[in-house]
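Collaboration report, partner site 2.

Our partner group contributed sequences for two proteins of shared interest, and the home lab folded both. The records are reproduced in the order in which they were received, starting with the first partner submission.
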Amino acid sequence: MSNTEFFNPFEGDIGDYEIKRWLDQFEKTEQPLIIKLLEEFKYYSLKKVNIFLKKLWTMIFKDLKTPIDNVWFVPVGCVAKSSSAISYFFKKVNDLDIDKFISINEINSIKIDSEATIVFLDDYIGSGNQASMFWSSKIKEKYIYKSCNSLFYGVLVGLNEGIQKVETNTNFKVKAIDILNEGDLPFSEKSKIFNNGKEKEEIKKIIKKYGEKFFPKYPFGYNSLGTLIGFFYSTPNSTFPIFWSTENAWKPLLPPGESLNDAYA
């Protein structure tokens, strides 16, 4: 078991023992750079998620132009998706009426008029592909969105570029609590994490080496975003696979997100 010192960003949800066990899967010479990634990891615990969900509702509420009794909340995706978990916690922490939470298939069963507002709930916008595809496949053609007063897309965390893509490609008004920029991505040109070119190339080789075994198409995470983001219940697949994959008997540090987040995060 590794004796290397490291920062634990997981607020008690993951212990040092689990981190050491995970680190020991890497070669000794690789561990210092992996630890540097760990130090920059953004982890959203239950406590933090609940705080964010309160802020999210406050943000949306301030922007409402319709009566509160004509606001509907819809998780993006099916019951197994992480958006359903977010909807549950959103309802609970904000003490909202359960009858105002409906599935995407129930939208046509409610009265949608010029006074209606629909709030679509998700946890994360990465590339913006999922929200854009959700718009084009579920909303634009199936539902008369023009009859609504407004359509919100509320998330806890979003990459600035992905948010801009969603707002360009859809009629959603995106509301996000934690907005990340290019500097928060380890391998971007503006990275605040690895500003040393040689060091960046070394960690890239390590991530690629393992990532090709876990997620061959995207060894750096979906769309090669290479994020360092995880929630207490799931991990976006845009995060490096070394953190969440269970392929090839790998022991992940975080819960895998494949069953909760589809391939278009």
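Second partner submission, folded after the first:
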Amino acid sequence: MDLKPGSRWKSAVCDAQLVVVRPPKAAGELQCGGTAVLPIDDPAAPTGVVDADFADSVAIGKRYVDEESGLEVLGAKPGKGSLAFNGAAMMIKGAKPLPASD
């Protein structure tokens, strides 16, 4: 799985679509709903069941990060499955605090 910046992916089990913002430091598997994601141009329609451990959903416009690998992805289309990298759940990236205006 070649997770290059700007590459687009889709879930194999729900409607979620993703864009890689920052690639991981080491190779690994991006997953949605407990199943490996597919390239956006793959003709397969989403089938199967979202794993109950990875059913927290993907939100459109939110960035998801895996701190250990440095991977960062953007939710381009919402879906029922949640994201993981090599089996470890990815977290929503928090907003940067703005500097204080005195």
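Feedback sent to the partner group on the second submission included the following. The beta strands are 8-10, 17-22, 30-32, 35-36, 38-39, 63-66, 71-77, 83-85, 88-89, 91-92. The mean pLDDT is 92.
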